[in-house]
Amino acid sequence: MSRLFSVARPVLHAFSPETAHDLTIATLKSGLLKPDAIARDVRLHVNCMGLDFPNPLGLAAGFDKNAEVPDDMLGLGFGFVEIGSVTPRPQQGNDKPRLFRLPEDAAVINRMGFNNHGHARVFGRLADRGDRGGIVGVNLGANKDSDDRIADYALGAAAFNKLASYITVNISSPNTPGLRALQSKGELEILIGRVRDALDGAADEDGRRAPLALKIAPDLVEDELEDIAAVCLKMKVDALIVSNTTISRPPLRSKHKQEAGGLSGAPLFRLSTIQLARMHSMTGGKLALIGAGGIASAEDAWQKLRAGASLLQLYSALVYHGPQLIADILQGLIHRLDEHGFSGLHEVTGSGCEEWLKGGPSRN
Q1: pLDDT digits over 278-309, tens only?
Q2: pLDDT tens-digit map of 316-334
Q3: Which of 11, 87, 165, 316 has the fewest CB atoms in 10 Å of its CB?
Q4: How far apart (Å, rounded) are the C-alpha atoms in residues 285 and 240?
Q5: Is 165 annotated as catalytic?
Q6: Which member of 173, 243, 281, 316 is catalytic?
Q7: What are phi and psi of 276, to 5 degrees?
Q8: Please, are residues 166 and 210 in contact by the beta-carbon 8 Å criterion?
């Protein structure tokens, strides 16, 4: 698979990023992409949100917006896949071009704007999975022109409760104007309350209530993080994803560095990992954290775990490293468990939190 990607990458990168993404989805649907040997070790198993994950490495939302290839991505070695973001009504998203590679920075900027097929079509695809198993989360968004965005999230929670392994409320995309305001304490309490009510109502019919995760921005200041931590603990949110893309712009070399949108990839790693450690400290380790942002190696994954993550997510690094990265990270985590003599990843989670609160280890 690594050799295949080394050949395919120059071809894919000759196309626009969106066209290359569409070609990748089509290739996955064809079944032509076969994984190399996937590292399996009982020490990689994680129990989180009441679910048993075969390994901690997940595919972040944004790659499979419309639930077209969740099983194909699980087959490549991911321990879980998060589809979406999905809005109640289909929407086209923002005008093109809206996705940019920054190869000099191993980064991506996007201003997609929740382009997706809507609840009904995505629900149909998930229903067609039948009993294939695997952990597939559903990331919910709100329509740009919605009169009541909180109602959009509640509607999504009720709609997908039966099929989603877990549900993520994404209020941290920078590409829907005003969306991030829902991260403020008062709005967040109302939002989570209404989503919880929707899940409880659906549980009466479905016989289960999907775990609830919240995805936050990396650009929040200390007081905002403290408010979110307090609300999540008070209202018993099951997990927090730290973090989405950033609107900040660290020093970048690419010609696309001034494009509007959310920055992901390597430049996001340090900021998102420090925020992860802050949230681990603020919640006293009582809230499950999913570390996302800039993971591109086993060492990156290890440091996210040390900062406080129980689970991990990546996406942008696949653009530059291909699907072989999945197996490489899992094997690297096994090697580090051996090296440090840990019996499982639970012993790693948060073990370097204090170091990351001070800025993290030096990265040469």
Answers
A1: 999 999 999 999 999 999 999 999 999 999 99
A2: 999 999 999 999 999 999 9
A3: 11
A4: 12
A5: no
A6: 173
A7: -60, -45
A8: yes
